[in-house]
């Protein structure tokens, strides 16, 4: 990044930061229900949902490793690395893209 055109303040380049506005988006309960209902049929996570519902179930090490980034919220939404996991449903994905 070329910073040569920035003014200097006391020997240091002056940085101007743009303020970011974060808009809070409400939960679409119908969409959340659709996502929850599609989870059991998802080929990637469907077979492992029982382990997420009950973390005390014994499991193989590879299953444990696979499930590491997943969290099932109390309302049944699956998160992967903190983001909502969208099941493999073309209809669901198309609906999300159209919003």
Number of helices: 4
Classify the helix fraction into a percent range: 25-40%
Residue share in β-strands: 5-15%
Low-confidence stretches: 9-24
Order of helices and strands: EEHHHEEEH
What does this structure look like?
This protein has 99 residues and is α+β, with helices and mostly antiparallel strands. The protein has one domain. Helices cover 31% and strands 12% of the residues. It is built from four helices and five strands. It has helices spanning 29-38, 49-53, 61-67, 90-98, and strands at residues 8-9, 12-13, 70-72, 78-80, 83-84. The chain has a three-stranded antiparallel β-sheet, with no helix packed on it. The longest helix is centred in the middle third of the chain and has 10 residues, at 29-38. The radius of gyration is 21 Å and the shape is elongated. Mean pLDDT is 79; it is low at 9-24.
Keywords:
two-stranded antiparallel sheet, alpha+beta, 31% helix, single chain, 4 helices
